[in-house]
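Handout, section B. The chain below has 155 residues.
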Amino acid sequence: MSGSDPVSEIATAVEATAEALIGVLDAARLAQVPAIPPAQLRVLTIVATNRHTNMSRLAEALEVVPSSASRLCDRLEATGLLRRVPDPRDRREVRLLLTTSARRLLDDLHTRRRDALAAVLERMTPAAREELVRALRAFQVATGEDEAAGDLRTA
């Protein structure tokens, strides 16, 4: 890369690559039947990763007002993907739980995404794949998100 600001040029290349990656992942999401809207998928993902999610924590994680989070939950509950139950620790709180259908949907989506990524990675040389993993590890360390780095170490 040439130019006066190589870091800026690299940032531009990373941004373009991130857009391509998002395109691959989004195509996998859209191929799923039924295709789930991104906001609803985000709710399911948040609930899946935190078993003590209630409406206020969800609204905070989504950075929306509680009424907006509640409407998203209404839609997910209507489609059989989410349940609201009283929190056993505090009956005034409502706990959000994924249904079996939601767990299957998320598992299927993760499989579709991995398959879509694998199809792209197979078009790369083994050396390029190794270089990519090294670069992703370095990027992850630079962000301070070392917890998930274990996932990359096993790649």
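Note. The chain has seven helices and two strands. Compare this with the example in section A.
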